[in-house]
Amino acid sequence: MGEEETRGTGGADLRGIPRVDRVLANPSLTQAKQRLGVAVLTRLVRRALDEARDAVRGGAPCPSVEEVALRVSAHAERTLGTRARRVINATGVVLHTNLGRAPLGARVAEALARSAAGYTSIEIDLATGRRGRRGAFAEDALCELSGAEASLVVNNNAAAVLLMLGALAAGRSVVVSRGELVEIGGGFRVPEVMARSGARLVEVGTTNKTRIADYARALDAAPDAAAILRVHQGNFRQVGFVERPEHRALAALARERKVLLLEDLGGGAIVDLESLGLSGEPSVRSSVEAGSDVVCFSTDKVLGGPQGGAIVGRADLVAACRKDPLARALRLGRLPLVALEATLAAYLEGDLDVIPTMAALRAPLSAVRARAERIQGELAREGVTSSVVELGGAVGGGACAEEPLPSFGVALEAAGGELATIAERLRVGEPPVLPRVQEGRILFDVRTLLDGEDAPLTAAIISAVKG
Ligand SMILES: *Cc1c(COP(=O)(O)O)cnc(C)c1O
Question: Does the beta carbon of 309 lie inside 6 Å of ligand 1?
Answer without folding.
Answer: yes
